[in-house]
Amino acid sequence: IIDSETIRLSWFSSTLPRIAQLAFIENKDLGKFVFINTHLDFLKKRVQAKQLNKLKEIISKFEYPIILCGDFNLDTNDLIFKDFIDYLDSIGIKRVLIDKPAYKGIDGKN
After folding, report:
1. Positive/negative CA dihedral, 6, 36, 102, 73
2. Closest Cα to residue 4, out of 21, 19, 27, 17?
């Protein structure tokens, strides 16, 4: 790890403060890349949209590969998530397809 940074995402009226954690990594085989981890708001779509826009802003600053992961708290069919995925596709970021929720609620349902 060469460096690290924590960036606040928009959380005005969010349920909890939200951040993006960045680790700048250099590997002898892979070269430089950025690892970004985040956890978006789970309740308010307006806040989630602002947080995704902030992630787009963060991602657009880097010319080397990015590994982005986190809990987006969005269904893959959600329009704001689709817009974010379209953005990633438009700038050539590859992604792992997820076909089912990773979390089961207290009642055991997704």
Report:
1. positive
2. 21
Q: How far is CA 76 from the centre of its chain?
A: 13
Which one-letter DSSP state was computed for residue 60?
T
Question: Residue 87 half-sphere exposure, CB side, CA atoms within 13 Å?
Answer: 15
User: What CA–CA distance (Å, rounded) separates 9 from 11?
Assistant: 6
Q: What is the CA radius of gyration of the chain?
A: 15
As given in the structure block, the two tokens for residue 99 are 């076909």
Single pTM value for the model:
0.82
Running DSSP on this structure, what letter comes out for residue 51?
Answer: H
User: pLDDT digit string (tens) for 19-66?
Assistant: 999 999 999 998 999 999 999 988 888 889 999 999 999 999 998 899
Read off φ and ψ for residue 84, nearest 5 degrees.
Answer: -65, -45
